Target: 1-deoxy-D-xylulose-5-phosphate synthase
Amino acid sequence: MEQATSYELLNKIDSPKDLRHLPADLLPEVCKELREMIIDELSRNPGHFGSSLGVIELTVALHYVFNTPYDRIVWDVGHQAYGHKILTGRRDRFCTNRKLNGLCPFPSPAESEYDTFTCGHASNSISAALGMAVAASRKGEDDRHVVAIIGDGSMSGGLAFEGLNNASSTPNNLLIILNDNNMAIDRSVGGMKQYLLNLQTSEGYNRLRFAIAQKLRKIGILTEERQKSLLRFNNSLKSVLTQQQNIFEGMNIRYFGPVNGHDVLSLTKVLKEIKDMKGPKLLHIHTVKGKGFKPAEKEATLWHAPGKFNKETGERIIPDTTGMPPLFQDVFGNTLLELARQNKKIIGVTPAMPTGCSMNILMKAMPDRAFDVGIAEGHAVTFSGGMAKEGLQPFCNIYSSFMQRAYDNIIHDIAIQRLNVVLCLDRAGLVGEDGPTHHGIFDLAYLRPIPNLTIASPYDEHELRKLMYTAQLPDQGPFAIRYPRGRGTQTDWECPFEAIEVGKGRKLKDGSDLAVITIGPIGNDAAQAITESEAHTGKSIAHYDLRFLKPLDEAMLHEIGKRFHRIVTVEDGILKGGMGSAILEFMSDNGYTPVVKRLGIPDRFIPHGPVEALHAICGIDKTTIYNTLIHLLEV
Model:
């Protein structure tokens, strides 16, 4: 990207070392230019917008005070890190952000030494940073600082509390920065949100306590052995004086704040004062998501990832979708509301993504019938299990890649008891520009071994509605439905509800020379490839929609095994352990010996980029399917 001449300071910062050479009084101008650059670039090259604008001052202060990359900065939920990328040698490449072969959408250690840890999912920063702090201590690197930045609702995740608990009992000098903006992607919910809003701490008290502690150490009274006991006493005294309990200091973690997260000079001052303090400590800052761009400040959820927009007027540039099929997400949301009106037992559950998965449709119409539990996927599943145990019918909607975090909960709290929970796996398959941390490619493989679990994937919107209807019928047990991000193929999606026999696939097209087996919407691409292959070769190809990965339609597979010597399987999931593997196992177990060519996601992490390009990279695009069919038909 050609840099604008107005970025007089930013254009001279090729690394944080350059930033640290500036006098402190220029930092507000650096923040101004950094914010303007992000607004300018994202207006044309869409990405995560509001989160990065909210931490501009924090980002500048951190790289100004700490000796990065030797000092470790660990981001939580990396959509906050655009300013960090620009300041750490990637300014001129920021225009490639989220593009195929361009900058990664989230911090990636493979991309830069300043990106200390992978952070596409929430709540892992404290645990990772604590590990780094302990490692630094064991290696004798006592001058290395480690900072974890957690916010955007991540503190509601259970892993964050596990990290806090360990940090309170393990010798370390970790600094945790709590970026409190009262937001996740949608508004934060739960008791932690209210606690952070109410938390107040006296800065004068902190200064006094620090001064007293220094004197006590000098005269030998405050030893390491006595420090924790005295800290607990001080925390109790502070609770009495401030008339509130501080959860962090209750865990023996020094607490500072709250402070204004948009005052870069105050932030640098505070960070300098506390960075060399011994023991774990937490700095609580208040920020505004979307800071510096008024439309984003007013509607933070809408401006989390707004797409292209006019940076002068704030008007979002929304493509004309007239006549196009709806998003699978909107079909889910409207269908769930329709079913909830018919079935009083239905409850909606989502972990902090009601807008993204369209659970907000049910929330708006029936606010007492839907729950946003915060960024807590494991809890969402077990919470759903508890309701199902008492006779309700939860629809628990979690993005496929995030459902990985609830794997034990699915087994232990749902499947063993065969509870009637519908697990809706949104964003299944390759999701595009969010990259490997968000691709939903493992669900078919990781769910398939679980007993008592039905696994289905709809071919189109009609099938999604029918599967949702089927899943809420009495005594279906755990029922997983996976579907992709984006649009389907049916403009007339509002078909009547109809029960589908569980474990029953469909023959979409008969044929005699070769069989193609697909599962889910990728079958539409296969159907086009089949039509073109038949036109080219004059051969006849059968197409089967498996529908259910578990239980398998054994009658249909016996038919295929008996009739065909050549089979192609196509799935938008990982090949190892997925649908193709299930077909091979069935054929082997039943004595069939066809040649089976499996198309799916290879055994590697797939980068970010447009879905169509990623399909081609993985060999599940229409052209590759076509070429595969041609080759097998000509053998």
Remarks:
- The longest strand covers residues 566-574.
- Confidence is low (pLDDT under 50) at residues 184-189, 191-203.
- The radius of gyration is 27 Å.
